[in-house]
Amino acid sequence: MTLEVLTPDQYLMKRKDIAYVLLNTVTGGIGILANHGPLIAVLGEGTLKLQDGNNHVILLYVEGGFAEVKDNKVIILTPKAELAEHIDVKKWEAVRDEAAARLTRPGVLTDIEHTEKTLRRAEARLKTANLMGHVAPYEWET
User: Fold this and answer.
1) Cβ neighbours of residue 110 closer than 8 Å, sequence gap 6 or more
2) Is 28 left (phi over 0), alpha (psi -120 to 50) or beta?
3) What is the rounded distance in angstroms from the CA atom of residue 54 to the CA atom of residue 140?
4) What is the domain count for the chain?
5) Average pLDDT over every residue of 5-15
6) Looking at the structure, do residues 28 and 48 belong to the same domain, yes or no?
7) Are 24 and 62 a contacting pair, CB within 8 Å?
8) Beta strand pairing status for 57-70 and 73-77?
């Protein structure tokens, strides 16, 4: 299958050798194999798992968005995406800790909704980074 991951800032990835995609949708995970029926899904913040034809697992963080599946092509449109190996773990641990502290002791000017979103996104990035090397390839019968 072909896979494209696009953000407003960049064309993060375009590959033609993808065998499996695990989408993290707002209603749960959806596995996509070749010849999957047409689908449009709303993505949640979290990990996008890809597997190429050589069974190499590729992990990306996506910050929500949409996925379209049609004619053996998966297109991911997301505000932000990052390969797991490029996630700055120390930076996102600091962001997570600061957001958690603000929610524990909110000040008068604390935007609770924004701070919760920041915490959720930091935790999702950290989870994606921590999955590297711990996710086995999907196996299917041929």
Assistant:
1) 102, 103
2) left
3) 13
4) 2
5) 94
6) yes
7) yes
8) antiparallel
Q: How far apart are CA 66 and CA 81, in angstroms?
A: 12
Mean pLDDT, the chain, whole residue set: 92
Which CATH number covers residue 70? 2.60.15.10
In a domain, residue 9? The reply is yes
Average pLDDT over residues 30-39: 94
Q: Say yes or no: 56 and 119 in one domain.
A: no
Residue 142 has pLDDT above 80, yes or no: no
DSSP 8-state class, residue 8: S
Q: Is residue 37 part of a domain?
A: yes
Domain enclosing residue 9, as ranges: 2-85
pLDDT score of 53:
86
Q: pTM here? A: 0.85
The candidate with the shortest Cα–Cα distance to 47, out of 30, 80, 23, 12, is 23
Q: Mark whether 96 and 111 lie in a shared domain.
A: yes
67 and 16 together in one domain: yes
Residue type, position 116, single letter = E
What are the φ and ψ backbone dihedral angles of 26, each rounded to 5 degrees? Answer: -65, -15
- Summarised one tens digit per residue, pLDDT across range 90-128 is 999 999 999 999 899 888 888 889 999 999 999 999 999
